[in-house]
Amino acid sequence: MSWMCVLVMLMLGPVLAQCTVSGNTSGLMEYTADSFSEKAHSGKTLFVYFGHQVSPDISLFLVQLEKSAEALLDYGISVAKVNCSKEQVAKFCTGEKLMKKAYLFRGGEVLKSFDLDTVFDVDAIVSHILFAVLFDELRYVQSDADLQALERPARGRTDMVLGYIRMLGTPEHRSLMETVFVYGAKYQFVLTTGGPILDPLGVGSSSLSSGVWFLHCRVHRGGLAIPTVTSDRCPLTPMRKPLSTLGLYAFLQLMEAPIVSEVYEDPSSQVHVSQAPHLHTPLLFLFSRPSTEHLDLDTATTLAWRLRGLAQLVLVHRESPAVKTPQEYNAAYRLPGQGSEVKYLTLTNLEEVMELFTDQEGEEAELHEEEAEDEEGEEGEKWPTMDMLDDEVGESVYRDRGHSLDMDSVVQLTSHTFHDAVAQSGLTVALFYLKWDAVSMAFLSSFVEVAERLADSEVPDVQLGVVDCGEWTDLCAAQPGGSSRPPAPFQPITAFPSVLLLRPQDAAAQRYSGMLGSEALHRFIMLNRLASPVLLASQEEVTSFLQEVPLLPYLADYRPDRALGLFRTHTDTDVPVFIEAAKSLRGEVLTALLSDGLAERCAVDHGVDLPAVLVFGSSRIHTRPSSIPIPSSSEELATHIHSALLHSLPELTVGSLPSYLSLGRPLLLLFVGEEEDERGRRENEAALEEMRGVAEREETEERFLPCWIHIGHTPAGASVLESYLGSLPALPALVLSHLSTGRELYHYPPNSPIVAHSIIQWLQRIADGVEPPAGMMGDERWMPVAPFYDFLAVMDQEVPGHAQQRTPQTKEKKKRGRGVARNDSEEDRNHKEEEEVPRGRGGDDRRSDSSTAPLHSEL
Fold first, then answer.
1. Would you state the pLDDT for residue 440?
2. How far is 511 from 396, CA to CA, in rounded Å?
3. pLDDT confidence bin for 228, thresholds 50/70/90
């Protein structure tokens, strides 16, 4: 689903290029004769205009050519011009004063030439060039016999998409070609521009509208067969909405959805069927009883095929206690759009349903015509609304769309060079990204920054490379052990951006699941350069490891968490378990293995029995390490090590928050301010010391999680506190939140000193029910402004067993909280790391409980 979610960004690429392409303000290049020759033979696709003099008509063409440059960049096609008054390129710079042709090159050869009258604007340029590049992906038909000849070999193998384009070079033609670019390997696309084929499709020869039809030539994936038909033709479903990029995307998504979805909840709840289609399609609910379940399913299937493309059908099982609809109703429907109400009906035959949605279709068509008239001539006003989008990642990429990004420090990896590049370097860090995905483009900048930092430090045997999955789909979708030679060392990439670490000697890649920021990635790479585990062979090495003295100079900047495995011999049966766990922790935890006499001596010093694992937290000063017995599996051992590294009084940051929320304990949360002077520093230290006293009490450890947020380290903490209490109190401030009993918030009396025994008494008053709450946490749903900007949902798909519920937050609070975070980033760039996208261990707990919303959504 995450792959399909980002595909819409590709289909919108020519428009969203404004907010995702990092490059010159204009993507139009001007080549010299030498640079043209070099680019033409580079193997890439080029669209070039050669000109002498410029007439008014050619001036208009050059304006459109410049606009198309950014759009075509998304498809790996460079756009350029050559001034033949200054440069002479053989065969193309002729003696004509006004040259009225443009050329498409691939591999040094002319793929196609275009009269300027043909490529008259951006839509025409993009559609014609994609048409030429994707010519082999399309089949052209004029008659029904031509279409039938294509259907026969497609039966049982692939579905087909038939597009009727009334005139080439139009926006409809461009939308179809962009769709072919995305889905060309998935469906067989067929194009017609008119002729006898229109009559069987029900299109009049005088029709002014282009159209699309989906031909169901393969068995439906939903487990419900296509109804029996009397001929050997593929059943077809027309796209009833006007042909546009987004409309076509939603239509294809709807064709992929199950023909009937079965649910056990009431339609009045937010029934979640297929993620994308229902956002643009009405939902029809039919109610099923246990006694007639099979008959109801057959009826629903028959009706669903008649409504295919008009509405998505949902079968509601009445035996579920969650279904509250009165028995008098046997159907209901909900129109597209968030907040649309459910309307209940009592239907007596299927034709009533058809009339209902046929009428809705007519009303919707009139609405589309009115919207199209409103938008006509307002092209310049469309995309400034991007500033209003709710997702800060997308907005930041849009704001920085004109800034160039130097990619010289990273290797451009392709399906042809990938395996050789990995084999030639000790460690390859590969970023798989999409140019039309805002998160990818935001992280690409950080990735390049890490590459430049490694190059400046002259770090040997590490290379950073990037894979554009929009261009090299075969590499990103390769199956391990599949037909590719050599086989891909990773599973197909379905979430973007993704970072993999690859070594020539390893059969499988290691996935980076940390923060999407330069500092976190740099730390991960540097720690990965060390063996995991390190084999300690002398007392000096043991002392260096235990005293946090860097084993290698490049670790001097880091104080990593450490885990030391102690074994009697290298051949102990538990050694492989520890080694596998150490490999899974590589880049996060520094691990070492000790055996024989050195291990026995270390075990005596720390009072443990062999075999054992000693865990040293990076922020624990002068404290004894945690001791872990060796379990039966490496996964269990890695989990135990992670748990041992959780602090008894942690500082909550963007990176650490998911791990602690996953514990499911109420938060006893201390907010401290910035230390503007020595007095402020002492006050913070005193408050934290009292909190440590609370944390050390056994009853507190069982009931609460004492923790703290430093407003200076995590500026968003200020908006969190304000959302809790409605205003910012004096700091330090103590709050109890995320209670399992409800959404109450408790504020420690601001005039009382923060002392351990007073805090314990306050907690007891809360437990006894005599302390009044200071407020309640909101529970309203917090949805993205558009489905293709739901980046949190995309990130959730990466984690097995992820929670589906969106964090609640009111619209007003969301704007206020995000505004605070944005202003912080603008005023203080030193806090950049805190604004990066959180991922990794514990990331699936972001929305595991609606009561966590104000804290996690603000951070």
1. 86
2. 26
3. very low
Q: 644 with 591: CB under 8 angstroms?
A: no
According to DSSP, residue 666 is labeled P
Q: Does the structure show a pLDDT above 50 at 832?
A: no
Confirm if 504 and 429 have CB atoms less than 8 A apart.
no
pTM above 0.85, yes or no: no
- Other CB atoms within 10 A of residue 811 CB: 12
Q: Write the DSSP assignment of 709-725 as a string of letters.
A: EETTT-TTHHHHHHHHH
Residue 341 CA neighbour count, 13 Å, CB half: 2
For the chain, what percent of residues have pLDDT higher than 70? 74
Q: Calculate mean pLDDT across residues 43-48.
A: 89
The predicted model gives 503-519 an average pLDDT of 86
pLDDT for res 830: 39
pLDDT (0 to 100) of residue 481: 64
Indicate the DSSP class of residue 376.
T
Instruction: Report the interhelical angle of 2-11 vs 171-183 (nearest 10°).
Output: 150
DSSP-assigned beta bridge partners for residue 263: 316
Q: Which helix (H) or strand (E) holds 146?
A: helix 144-154
For 504, phi and psi rounded to 5 degrees?
Answer: -60, -35
| CA nearest to 190, candidates 215, 220, 216 | 215
- CA–CA separation, 161 vs 214, rounded Å? 5
Among the residue ranges 209-223, 271-285, 287-301, the one predicted with the least confidence is 271-285
Q: Which of 703, 638, 626, 583 is nearest to 841 (CA)?
A: 638
Residue 334 DSSP SS3: strand
Contact present, 30 and 85 (Cβ < 8 Å)? no
Start-to-end Cα distance in the chain: 26
Q: What is the mean pLDDT of residues 572-583?
A: 89
Distance CA 584, CA 566 (A): 18
Three-state SS annotation for 490-554: CCCCCCCCEEEEECCCCCCCEEECCCECHHHHHHHHHHHCCCCCEECCCHHHHHHHHCCCCCCHH
Average pLDDT over residues 399-417: 77
Per-residue pLDDT reduced to its tens digit, 520-558: 899 899 888 888 888 888 888 888 787 755 555 556 566
Q: Give the strand order in the sheet containing 510-512.
A: 411-412, 462-468, 427-433, 498-502, 510-512
Helix (H, G, I), strand (E, B) or coil at 612: strand
Indicate whether 392 pLDDT > 60: no
Is residue 313 within 8 A of residue 246, CB to CB? The reply is no
Residue 776 to residue 779: CA distance in whole angstroms: 9
- HSE toward the beta carbon, residue 8, CA cutoff 13 A: 22
- Cβ atoms of residues 73 and 44 within 8 Å: no
Helices (H) and strands (E) in the chain, counts: 27, 30
Q: Which domains does the chain have, with CATH numbers?
A: 1-20+389-529 (3.40.30.10), 31-132 (3.40.30.10), 134-255 (3.40.30.10), 257-372 (3.40.30.10), 530-644 (3.40.30.10), 657-858 (3.40.30.10)
pLDDT at 406 over 60: yes
CA distance 349 to 306: 13
DSSP 410-475: SEE--TTTHHHHHHTSSEEEEEEE-TT-HHHHHHHHHHHHHHHHHHHTT-TTEEEEEEETTT-HHH
Question: Which parts of 307-417 fold into alpha helices (H)?
Answer: 350-375, 392-399
- pLDDT digits over 735-782, tens only? 988 776 667 889 998 888 888 888 988 988 888 888 888 877 765 455
Cis ω on the peptide bond leading into residue 497 (within 30° of 0)?
yes
Picking from 376, 382, 378, 375, the residue whose alpha carbon sits closest to that of residue 18 is: 382
Half-sphere exposure of 672 (CA within 13 A, CB side): 22
If you average pLDDT over every residue of the chain, what do you get? Answer: 76
